[in-house]
């Protein structure tokens, strides 16, 4: 019986998995999940997998029938491919939960055109990834296969899903586009959004440069419609265009908090907004300079500035003006139209919307630019708020041709699995292989439909390696999430990722005699980037953390000094190397907790479309780990912020930091809660947490997820366009 004719009523694995949620004698019956996993293979996978008798015959059939590309295989001998597949099989990989296997076979495994059969297993998907991203380098292919079969490295969904397939989207996870204040740029951006959503991941766009509603056009007062109609056009574009039907098109729009349309921008996401302006599927992000926090702290009025006037006065688009530095001059300048509003009114509106919808994302733009080691200005972020790279504006003519082509951003992502990478026989070698794999994607990404994206990629070779499974690793080692011990571990781990990606980027630059563009103007070239590592020893001091790293080389100041000298001599190939993206379904497959955040539940409940509810136990759940697996909704979010801050000091881009709060906050969790509030979540709670994150040096905040009294979640991100 094929997959399409599978009788759901007769299979047992859904029922067995559901029994996981029914305690037995007060205990979680984990054996039910193991039984569901075995039943899934027996009743679903084994009878519906079609593999030829030999590997060569199977791959030949896949190529002949149009399922598989042939070029990437032709870079290797058949003997090598066979040996590598034999090696993968010899590792005896096994999924550790029903959800892991279910997610892999439903979302990632290659299926026949009619959907009746699986045409690959996990080992084949890993094989295709390793061969593809090694680019003919047999040593690297072997290393990547090792990293992936042991789940130390996980390519992002677009890469892992598409590697080797004949009919596929791109490998790139996300794109960033800016729109300047003219109709040609708006038109080109809408077309670009269509193209990018069709071929790849999520698309982020900044609207900050567009003149506000009611501003003049060619001297006609009140002619501009502002940013809202552009948002509606973009939302329609994303809903129309998706990646061969495999993924829902998704986009995010960013607006500077000093833009005059900021209140209308936020209102567009409200449930009760007029349908003419309401955006249902578009994600919203707010770009927040330091000056806003100062004005809020002082309970002062804030001025919102006309982007059209600002560009006329300063000669650059609104996004490129340092508002914190120029604020007082802009207020005093009579040539700039401005609008006054209490700063705390905007702050309140943000908190109210985050309670209702989980939006907007927050990008602390001055924090991002202070830490940015690359010459230029960061002006926005992406669909998941972790990509932060410099951009240069483009100039277009009436044919929408480039008069002067700027640079926009594409980024391909991957993630380390912390519990597994910590057991690697060679931590540095593992990370160096991952850096090579991600660099391959950057080198071979060619987004012709959007030349500014293509140019930015060719100049910067940017990648984004991150991590998942922090809470799982801490629980396994009986360390409380957010404790001083946990924070020190997080810092050392990300220092190592930073060190080894720098080492390998330097090796690539030396081999190819090529650096990223403008390397000579970077803080890497002048050596100042390395000061924090030379002047401060980041090696662990806590005995428990020292023990965790006892078999792993941890560089000290002298090692960093040697690396600094090498980088100054030979340069770096990748302008950006690290970013912590959210991890969606892929963290289930990897049997680990998502990203750096705490787990949400000991047994997570997911609604899986037509198949109803599925249950997923926390990874490595046992009597020993349960005390260390506190739900994110019962965790002080300052511990989460502290955790991300510990990592952020080593990460050259950003991190997708989600805040988890209950609508009824547990007593004693936050000392500022008063008895008259009766534990109810208020806008003040979110305001305090956002400001705490800012003062801790957090570059961006992703969703706010609220667990309500009726057991629903507000602000749950189901989009996987940009997740790993």
Automatic annotation (TrEMBL):
* Catalytic activity as recorded in UniProt: a 2'-deoxyribonucleoside 5'-diphosphate + [thioredoxin]-disulfide + H2O = a ribonucleoside 5'-diphosphate + [thioredoxin]-dithiol
InterPro entries associated with the record: NrdE_NrdA_C, RNR_1b_NrdE, RNR_lg_C, RNR_lsu_N, RNR_N, RNR_R1-su_N, Rrm1
- Cite the Ribonucleotide reductase large subunit domain residue spans from the record: 560-582
According to its record, what are the GO cellular component terms? ribonucleoside-diphosphate reductase complex
Enzyme Commission number(s) of this protein: 1.17.4.1
Q: What class of enzyme is it?
A: oxidoreductase
Instruction: Please give the biological process terms from Gene Ontology that the record holds.
Output: deoxyribonucleotide biosynthetic process
Highest taxon of source: Bacteria
Give GO terms: molecular function aspect only: ATP binding; ribonucleoside-diphosphate reductase activity, thioredoxin disulfide as acceptor
- Asked whether the keyword tRNA processing is assigned, the reply is no
**Which family does the record claim for this protein?**
Belongs to the ribonucleoside diphosphate reductase large chain family.
Described function: Provides the precursors necessary for DNA synthesis. Catalyzes the biosynthesis of deoxyribonucleotides from the corresponding ribonucleotides.
Q: What name has this protein been given in UniProt?
A: Ribonucleoside-diphosphate reductase
Gene source species: Bombilactobacillus mellis
Its ancestry begins with: Bacteria, Bacillati, Bacillota, Bacilli, Lactobacillales
């Amino acid at each position: 019986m094929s997959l399409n004719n599978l009788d759901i009523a007769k299979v047992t694995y859904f029922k067995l998995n559901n029994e996981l949620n029914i305690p037995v004698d007060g205990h979680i019956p984990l054996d039910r999940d193991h039984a569901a996993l075995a039943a899934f293979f027996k009743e679903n996978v084994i009878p519906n997998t079609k593999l030829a008798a030999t590997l060569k015959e199977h791959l030949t059939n896949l190529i002949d029938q149009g399922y598989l590309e042939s070029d990437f295989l032709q870079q290797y001998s058949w003997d090598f491919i066979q040996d590598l597949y034999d090696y993968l099989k010899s590792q005896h990989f096994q999924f550790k939960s029903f959800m892991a296997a279910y997610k892999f076979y439903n979302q990632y495994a290659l299926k026949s055109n009619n959907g009746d059969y699986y045409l690959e297993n996990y080992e084949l998907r890993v094989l295709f990834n390793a061969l593809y991203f090694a680019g003919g380098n047999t040593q690297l292919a072997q290393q990547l296969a090792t990293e992936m079969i042991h789940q130390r490295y996980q390519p992002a969904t677009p890469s892992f899903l598409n590697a080797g397939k004949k009919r596929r989207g791109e490998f790139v996870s996300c794109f960033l586009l800016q729109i300047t204040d003219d109709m040609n740029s708006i038109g080109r951006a809408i077309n670009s959004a269509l193209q990018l959503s069709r071929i790849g991941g999520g698309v982020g766009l900044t609207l900050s440069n567009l003149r506000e509603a009611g501003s003049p056009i060619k001297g006609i007062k009140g002619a501009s419609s502002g940013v809202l109609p552009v948002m509606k056009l973009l939302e329609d574009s994303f809903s129309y265009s998706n990646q061969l039907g495999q993924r829902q098109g998704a986009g995010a729009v960013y607006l500077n908090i000093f833009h005059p349309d900021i209140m209308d921008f936020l209102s567009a996401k409200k449930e009760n907004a007029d349908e003419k302006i309401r955006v249902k599927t578009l994600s919203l992000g707010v770009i927040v300079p330091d000056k806003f926090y100062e004005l809020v702290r002082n309970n002062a009025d804030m001025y919102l500035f006309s982007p059209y006037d600002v560009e006329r006065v300063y000669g650059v688009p609104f996004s490129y003006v340092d508002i914190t530095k120029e604020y007082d001059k802009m207020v005093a300048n009579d040539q700039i139209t401005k609008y006054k509003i209490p700063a705390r009114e905007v702050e309140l509106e943000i908190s109210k919307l985050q309670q209702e919808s989980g939006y907007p994302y927050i990008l602390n733009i001055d924090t991002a630019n202070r830490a940015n080691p690359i010459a230029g200005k960061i002006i926005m972020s992406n669909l998941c708020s972790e990509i932060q790279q410099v951009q240069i504006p483009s100039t277009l003519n009436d044919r929408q041709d480039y008069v002067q082509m700027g640079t926009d951003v594409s980024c391909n992502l991957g993630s380390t699995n912390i519990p597994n990478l910590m057991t690697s026989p060679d931590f540095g070698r593992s990370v160096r292989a991952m850096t090579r794999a991600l660099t391959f994607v950057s080198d071979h990404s060619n987004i012709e439909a959007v030349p500014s994206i293509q140019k930015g990629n060719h100049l910067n070779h940017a990648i984004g390696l991150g991590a998942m499974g922090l809470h799982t690793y801490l629980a396994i080692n009986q360390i409380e999430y957010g404790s001083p011990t946990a924070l020190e571990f997080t810092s050392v781990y990300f220092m190592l990722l930073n060190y080894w990606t720098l080492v390998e980027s330097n090796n690539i630059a030396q081999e190819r005699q090529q650096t990223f563009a403008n390397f000579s103007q970077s803080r890497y070239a002048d050596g100042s980037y390395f000061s924090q590592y030379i002047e401060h020893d980041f090696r662990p001091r806590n005995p428990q953390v020292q023990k965790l790293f006892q078999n792993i080389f941890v560089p000290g100041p002298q090692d960093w000094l040697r690396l600094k000298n090498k980088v100054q001599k030979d340069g770096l190939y990748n302008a950006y190397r690290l970013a912590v993206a959210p991890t969606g379904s892929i963290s289930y497959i990897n049997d680990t907790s998502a990203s750096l955040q705490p787990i949400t539940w000991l047994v997570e409940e997911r609604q899986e479309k037509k198949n109803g509810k599925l249950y997923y136990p926390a990874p490595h759940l046992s009597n020993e780990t349960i005390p260390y697996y506190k739900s994110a909704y019962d965790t002080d979010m300052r511990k989460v912020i502290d955790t991300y801050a510990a990592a952020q000091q080593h990460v050259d881009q950003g991190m997708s930091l989600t805040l988890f709060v209950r609508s009824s906050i547990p007593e004693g969790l936050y000392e500022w809660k008063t008895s008259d509030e009766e534990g109810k979540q208020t806008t003040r709670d979110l305001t305090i947490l956002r400001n705490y994150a800012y003062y801790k040096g957090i570059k961006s905040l992703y969703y706010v997820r609220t667990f309500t009294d009726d057991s629903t979640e507000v602000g749950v991100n189901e989009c996987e366009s940009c997740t790993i």
